[in-house]
Amino acid sequence: MVAPFLQKVLHIYRTFFRLFTSKTGIFTSELCKSAQLFLLMELTHDKLVDIAYRWVLANGSCGVAFKELVSSGTREIPDVIGFGAWEHSVLVEVKVSRSDFLSDKGKSFRKNPEQGMGRQRFYCCPSGIIKVEDLPAGWGLLWVNEKGKCRTIHCPYKGNIELRHKGHVNNLQAERGLMYSALRRLHLRGRIEEIYAPFDVRENNLKI
Q: How far, in Å, are 74, 81, 102, 118 from residue 134 at the CA level?
């Protein structure tokens, strides 16, 4: 998380940059690049995870999603994974730097994609960190700008039905283990009975 002092510094820097450029009309490439890199410091891993979580629920055809949930039986800890009907699942891996992205390739469930979770898979990063040409086969890409706006840069799962990616062979055992872990925690905390309580779909704005 960004410390309060750093947040104040970022606010002052942003204000100065905007005032300076609007008054002087000076937009040198180096100044813009420096400002952009500085502003992107606000996009921490935790913030990007929250943004990706909201994206999955809003755009991934998922009715439920989890953030960095640890479960036994698998070494993979998805930054965000959402689940929908008919064994649909969407994985989003958050990367705050290029080195972070490159190191991800060394993980066993990346070298052997069928061991990983997510029928659909995306990387999420600050704008420009990862390019479309950097992506492994069948992965999508989400960019988040300095204002926290998430944009789909590449989605291989849409378009021509014969050309689009059909989805990865996902590790159903690991996914079910993760969902079991989530339900088990509710049970141990005495909350599992809540799933039987009646609810109004329209009133709660739920999609089933």
A: 26, 22, 9, 19
The CA-based angle 164-117-133, given to 5 degrees, is: 45
Establish if 157 belongs to a structural domain. yes
DSSP readout, 114-171? Answer: GGSS-SEEEEEEETTSS-GGGSPTTEEEEEE-TT--EEEEE-TTSS-TTTS-------
By three-state DSSP, how is residue 88 classified?
A: coil
Q: What CA–CA distance (Å, rounded) separates 108 from 39? A: 34
The pLDDT tens digits of the residues spanning 165-193 come to: 999 999 999 999 999 999 999 999 999 99
What are the phi and psi torsion angles at 113 (to 5°)? -55, -30
Q: Are residues 22 and 105 in the same domain?
A: no
pLDDT of residue 182: 94
Angle 24-30-36 (CA atoms, 0-180°, nearest 5)? 90
What's the pLDDT tens digit per position in 89-133? Answer: 999 999 999 999 999 999 999 999 999 999 999 999 999 999 999
Phi, psi for 159 (deg, rounded to 5):
105, -155
- The enclosing domain of 63 has a CATH number of 3.40.1350
Whole-Å CA distances, 151 to 46, 56, 148, 199, 204: 18, 12, 10, 33, 27
Report how far Cα 54 is from the mean position of its chain's Cα atoms. Answer: 8
The boundaries of the domain holding residue 114 are 45-196
Q: Give the count of beta carbons closer than 10 Å to the beta carbon of residue 101.
A: 18
